[in-house]
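Aim 2 progress update. The chain analyzed this quarter is reproduced below.
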Amino acid sequence: MYNLLIGFLLIVFVFVVIYVYKKNMHIWLYDYIYSNIYNFFTLPSKSNKTKDIMFLFVDHYELAGKSDRLSAWLNDYPTMVSKYRDFDGVKPQHTWFYALDLTNEEELKAIKPLVDEGFGEVELHWHHSHKSSQQFELDLKNGLEVFHKYGYMKSYNNSTHSSFSFIHGNWSLNNSRGEEFCGINNEIEILKKYGCYGDFTFPAMFSPAQPKYVNKITYTNLDTINKSYNHARISEVGKYETDDEFMIMQGPLAINFKDWRHKWHPTIENGDINGDFTQNSSKRIDCWIRQNIHVKNNPDWIFVKIFCHGAQDYKSLCSESTAQMYEYLGDKYNDGKKYRLHYVTARECYNIVKAAENGKTGNPNKYRDFIIPHPNKRDI
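Predicted structure tokens:
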């Protein structure tokens, strides 16, 4: 009997190892386990200090000329979220990372009222495979100038062409998945040259593109090698971004032992809000918060970045499930004592990270425009 048990456990162990490598989990699992052990022993489990939750919802936004997708976001979404407010009185914020390769100027014009009415902001999403850096740079420059016509991603100073954040449509930042999905080893360098202040692509749960660091805000050098961001430093109070660094803002990536939707294994949680209507799950939402993503030495400001493909999955995103998600967030994480909830855009998230690095504390609402102003306030 003892030998049978040992044999069974050995088979389970081999199966788990194969699964971990097949799913590329070995890339990030070490850092995940190490970080959880480190946080258990170093972060206070109980504190009288208020925890500020920065809740960031980014969207790989691909309307692709589909009128039903656009209609849902123009009509159903604003009606659904308008009644919710965070601690600062701000309604839920959505960051539409609009796909450059699917640019339709009528769509850019149509969604501008969502920005003007305070529902969120528009940033850059791009599926591409380029043969040369020169062509990539030219296409980026021309694409940004189209966005500028509608008030999106304009520069706020005289030193950069634009000001924007980025999501790689093929999950292949800096050529991390090869030429078919990117092709540019110095992509980050070019993005920063044109005013990109950070990447918001990750996590990429089962992809080889996933960085080895998880549940952290990091800075990578502008190295011209594929997947250069795998070598990074952690964002920290008192340490400032240099000219040759670039911010990588990740969302939660975790093994959620409180969520067994898949029956035979705990859910691998990555903050993906898709077509399965699970965004209202308290088990998911609590898991996002538990990852405790923060600037090192400022554990009281917690950043939660979730993502979606909100155009394709509009039936889920513009549904009662999303309303219930905001209901739960407001009920549990906005009592004003234990938690304060702040709905932020990608730009505001970046600004608040910068404020934390500069030693700012208290209510982060004061730092939504710490460096980069709102897109409607960039007249230079």
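The domain at 53-377 is CATH 3.20.20 (TIM Barrel). The first strand starts at residue 51 and ends at 61. These observations will guide the mutagenesis experiments scheduled for the next reporting period.
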